[in-house]
Amino acid sequence: MSEKGFSFTPDQLREIAAEVLRVARERGATACETDVSEGFGQSTTVRKGEVETIEYNRDKGVAVSVYLGQQRGHASTSDFSREALHSTVEAALSIARFTAPDPCAGLADEALLARACPDLDLYHPWRPSVEDAIERARECEDAAFAVGDAISNSEGASVSTQESHFVSANSAGFMGGFATSRHGISCSVIAGEADAMQREYWYDSRRDAADLSDARAIGQRAGERALARLGARKIDTCEVPVLFEAPIAVSLIGNFVHAVSGGALYRRASFLLDSIGQPVFSPLVTIAERPHVLKAFGSSPFDNEGVATHDRDVVVDGVLQGYFLSSYSARKLGMQTTGNAGGSHNLIVKGGECDFAALVRKMDRGLIVTELLGQGVNYVNGDYSRGAAGYWVEGGEIRHAVEEVTIAGNLRDMFRGIVAIGNDALPRGAKHCGSVLIERMKVAGR
To answer: Which pLDDT belongs to residue 36?
Structure first.
């Protein structure tokens, strides 16, 4: 990658944001908010030792939302010229004039806006040369092939790096922004031949490239997982305990967040309506939101509206303590924003004492899920049905790989049926959750 960094300084982004607010005010907007951002990155992929792709990206943008009373208009541009900024503001105003008033529209309450922007250590530039990135990707893929002769093909190993920075501002006096980075290494390989082929992958992603797992270790893990999938077969239809491996278990937390987020709640499209103070999980489950963890992907001193973020406990001993609300959804519900415009911030599920092997022994007989297929989740009633692959367990030991099955249940019952959470959470995302053992689910097979 070129040593050239950002094309604009943070001060220049702030000047652009201030210009947007000034023009909006002069042209009659009663309120305005804007986001100015810039980013660039590189991705290098090697397949079977040969360079397959080298991709670069560099982009920038300005998003503008204006209000004429309770009428809102939005427009955006990738042109930072003065003329383009003025035209974008005018376009947003034109949209607002033809939009019906919404009593819940408007900026966040001024008293809730962030007044400080602590350094959360989210920016760690890493600009490897193309040659260095290719070499690291080759090391990753070679390690996967070295696991065994049964590794017959590869979908490639990739090394990616991304840097971005932004400034958010509104006419209530808020202006803040910071730079972030995201770097990753991944590998996907195929084991077996003809009709007996199985694909698996592994990856790591961090803010700081120095924290990434070794490329060889990632490739080796991908190769080992592919080999373990050989001999996969269907199982008979049954009702058994199901163990969601940690990378898959975070999807359950994502299902929970969706169900208790403002949009689903005010539309009354959630099975967890009016559930604050009610047990929604097993008493084993405690979920904390920690927006200020250093180097974490979900960290931010403020949300997308500029509202200050704070530590809070979302679930304590299975009981729901609060929703995920923006200012708009909070007003629709007659509540106050939780600082979650744009989503949750670092959800940490308290782990138990068991590692993955101990959870397998605890399950004794059942299904380990390592892959989910399809999107069969009904958030209105909680019904859950998804294709799955993984491993069959008998006597507390993995017996063989499983494929072409469907797991089904209801999220309300699944959440309350959690009997153990592992201590094997991975730090590569904004949701941290160990493997989750659910007491019983339906598994449709032969």
So the answer is: 98
- Residue 353 CA: distances (Å) to CA of 176, 282, 358, 402, 422: 40, 16, 9, 27, 7
Residues 364 and 419 sit within 8 Å (Cβ to Cβ) = no
Residue found by looking up tokens 């490329």 in the block: 215
Q: What is the model's pLDDT at position 353?
A: 93
Give 341-363 pLDDT, tens digit per residue: 999 999 999 999 999 999 999 99
φ/ψ region of 420 (left if φ > 0, alpha if ψ in -120 to 50, else beta) reads beta
Cα 7 to Cα 13, 20, 78, 119, distances in angstroms: 10, 19, 13, 22
Residue 292 CB-density burial (10 A; 0-12 exposed, 13-18 middle, 19+ buried): middle
| Spatial distance between the Cα atoms of 53 and 47, rounded to a whole number of angstroms | 9
Q: Other CB atoms closer than 10 Å to residue 136's CB: what's the count?
A: 22
Q: Is 351 helix (H, G, I), strand (E, B) or coil?
A: coil
pTM over 0.85: yes
Residue range 265-314, pLDDT digits in tens = 999 999 999 999 999 999 999 999 999 999 999 999 999 999 999 999 99
- The 8-class DSSP code of residue 214 comes to P
**Which residues lie closer than 8 Å to 367 by C-beta, 6 or more apart?**
235, 240, 241, 242, 243, 388, 390, 391, 392, 393, 402, 405, 407, 441, 443
> CA-to-CA distance for 411 and 6, rounded, in angstroms?
44
Q: For 48-150, where are the E strands, in sequence order?
A: 50-68, 71-77
Residue 392 near residue 365 (C-beta atoms within 8 A): no
Show the tokens assigned to 313.
């406990």
Cα 32 to Cα 393: distance, rounded to the nearest angstrom = 57
> Alpha-carbon torsion 295, 41, 254, 387, what sign?
negative
Give the closest residue to 171 by CA, choosing from 5, 30, 12, 43. Answer: 30
